[in-house]
């Protein structure tokens, strides 16, 4: 444990670094809306680049704030601690208090997701629309009556006619019920999906099977167990030893050989029951640096529908700042001025998350979706719990609304049976500004259950107290942008 003198010196050092960081952030040329938030995020990054757990314990023993819930107002909280430890120290005045920080997030959330008629103390609810109900106005009325604030249309499963049907049915339901609702449209992005070249459109897989991944453009006869893929550029960077997952991680394989546009894959894990790989299932390559473009030809075509119907744009598989710049170029070309929700679902996006936040701050408003399905496969299920929390902290420091997505109460939604782990997961969702539900046959029951869980949780806590080890995903930005390339450890 540091002496009180050492503790004061360390906190004063942090405070000076905070002040210096404001100059660095001004060089980024961000939108004026994010001037305060950008500076606060930089200060939080500096804070989280240090090992703070011993400091937190010492502050706690002194009866002072341990800085554990300072995300939205980092400098203000540090100055208050200094007032008690070193009242003679005169740091730069900071007016970004806890109340102000939370108010900024609240205002952005309302602007992004719209007005609420009820349930003001819980996150907004986004519901993925079942395309089979596209022309069923009663279906939309039920969703609205049970708390849907945002309707999600996924371009991966909806064509132009279906999109127009959904938009028209929803608009009719809004008029009938008087309940407001926004439309969120997800651009599908370069999602790799299985193409099975046989009549049954499926193949049975067993442990240690060797199967082949091949370019769909190839014109030849295929081995019996072959999976085709339309994104042929993956073979440019695919290497032996790389992992490959199919169908949300149900099947795990290792690349044994890559030759021309064919990869031999050894299957090392399958489901215990019904080990059948079907057509149009997702493919994940977490070890492979993909050269795929973040916007596909279909995405660009669908921007016309976005311009007509969407309130929010979901940007899938964003990985680097250039992806944001590319979408921005097309939005300008199409004359679209609507907020973008950046979906974090790859390990590359996690590694570049701070840079993505600052690039997004060049626009007047944006949101973040933690898309935990692909993300869990990409980073490993073991890391998901800590990474999703780290993303929440960083978004709060940036005063950016977060959508908690993928498989929330999934068992209940699909089968009508809820699991204990699903309840715990839904409790975690209460830390976000919006929770997304997938489509399912029990969607109304699922919405009611989720609201009940969220209401109970919101009645007795807002945030948890965390201990602050250094965050690996902030070190690069702090070193390169805030410390002039020098480590401050």
Given the C-alpha coordinates, what overall shape results? globular
**Count of alpha/pi helices:** 17
β-strand number: 16
Sequence of strands across the biggest β-sheet? 1-2-3-12-13-14-15-16
What's the main sheet like?
8 strands, parallel, barrel
What proportion of the residues is helical, as a percent range? 40-55%
Indicate the CATH class of the largest domain: Alpha Beta
Question: How would you sum up this structure, described in words?
Answer:
By secondary structure, this protein is of the alpha/beta class. Helices cover 43% and strands 16% of the residues. The protein is built from 17 helices and 16 strands. It has helices at 4-26, 35-48, 53-61, 74-85, 98-113, 137-145, 160-177, 297-309, 321-334, 347-351, 353-360, 372-379, 381-397, 410-415, 420-429, 443-458, 472-482; strands at 124-128, 150-154, 182-187, 202-204, 210-215, 226-229, 243-246, 251-259, 262-269, 276-278, 283-284, 312-315, 340-344, 366-371, 402-405, 434-437. Strands 1-2-3-12-13-14-15-16 form an 8-stranded parallel beta barrel, surrounded by 6 helices. A 6-stranded mixed β-sheet has the order 6-5-9-8-7-11. The protein is globular. The model has no long low-confidence stretch (mean pLDDT 92).
């Amino acid at each position: 444990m540091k002496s009180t003198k050492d503790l004061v010196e360390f906190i004063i050092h942090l405070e000076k670094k905070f002040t210096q960081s404001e100059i660095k952030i001004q060089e980024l040329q961000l939108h004026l809306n994010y001037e305060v938030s950008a500076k606060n995020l930089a200060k939080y990054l500096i804070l989280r680049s240090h090992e703070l757990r011993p400091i937190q314990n010492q502050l706690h023993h002194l009866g002072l704030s341990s800085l554990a819930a300072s995300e939205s107002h980092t400098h203000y909280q540090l100055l208050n601690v200094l007032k008690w430890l070193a009242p003679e120290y005169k740091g730069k005045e900071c007016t970004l208090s806890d109340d102000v920080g939370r108010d900024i997030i609240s205002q952005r959330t309302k602007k992004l997701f719209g007005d609420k008629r009820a349930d003001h103390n819980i996150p907004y609810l986004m519901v993925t629309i079942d395309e089979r109900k596209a022309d069923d106005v009663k279906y939309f009325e039920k969703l609205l009556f049970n708390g849907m604030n945002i309707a999600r249309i996924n371009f991966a499963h909806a064509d132009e006619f279906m999109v127009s049907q959904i938009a028209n049915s929803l608009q009719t339901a809004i008029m009938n019920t008087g309940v407001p609702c926004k439309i969120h449209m997800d651009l599908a992005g370069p999602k790799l999906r299985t193409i099975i070249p046989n009549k049954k459109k499926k193949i049975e897989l067993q442990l240690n099977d060797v199967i082949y991944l091949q370019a769909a453009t190839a014109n030849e006869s295929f081995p019996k167990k072959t999976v085709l893929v339309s994104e042929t550029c993956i073979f440019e960077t695919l290497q032996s030893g790389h992992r490959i997952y199919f169908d949300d991680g149900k099947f795990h394989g290792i690349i044994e050989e890559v030759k021309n546009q064919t990869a031999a894959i050894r299957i090392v894990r399958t489901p215990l029951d019904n080990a059948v790989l079907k057509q149009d299932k997702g493919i994940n390559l977490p070890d492979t640096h993909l050269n795929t473009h973040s916007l596909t030809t279909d995405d660009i075509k669908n921007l016309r529908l976005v311009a007509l119907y969407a309130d929010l744009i979901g940007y899938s598989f964003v990985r680097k700042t250039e992806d944001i710049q590319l979408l921005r170029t097309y939005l300008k070309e199409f004359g679209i001025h609507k907020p973008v929700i950046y979906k974090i679902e790859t390990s590359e996006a996690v590694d570049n998350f701070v840079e993505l936040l600052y690039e997004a701050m060049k626009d007047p408003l944006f949101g973040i979706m933690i898309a935990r399905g692909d993300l869990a496969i990409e980073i490993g299920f073991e890391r998901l719990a800590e990474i999703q929390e780290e993303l929440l902290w960083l978004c709060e420091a940036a005063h950016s609304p977060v959508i908690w997505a993928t498989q929330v109460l999934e068992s209940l939604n699909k089968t009508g049976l809820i699991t204990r782990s699903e309840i715990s997961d839904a409790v975690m969702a209460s830390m976000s500004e919006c929770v997304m539900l997938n489509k399912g046959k029990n969607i109304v029951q699922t919405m009611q259950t989720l609201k009940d869980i969220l209401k109970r949780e919101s009645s007795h806590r807002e945030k948890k107290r965390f201990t602050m080890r250094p965050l690996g995903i902030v070190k690069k930005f702090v070193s390169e942008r805030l410390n002039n390339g020098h480590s401050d450890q």
